Amino acid sequence: MSRNDDDNDDLAVYELNTRSVVGLVVSVAVGVVGLFALPALQRGFGLSFQEAFWPLLAVEFLAFVGVAVSVLRLHEKRSFD
Question: Is the dihedral of CA 48, 49, 52, 55 positive or negative?
């Protein structure tokens, strides 16, 4: 490794990934709305608890995956090359 390679590594900066922040906000919003959606689905569409719970559980799981992926990609390494 040359001296020049070390200098480039020192110049690398971690930046906040804007798409990841937007994904995090949207995923959290979907998760919060999902917390209160069960009674609305039961009353609004006349669904039983089981009929409303399982699709809502799938939506909550997707929101969880969105939060996890967004957090893992929150910072990205930028260099000045």
Answer: negative
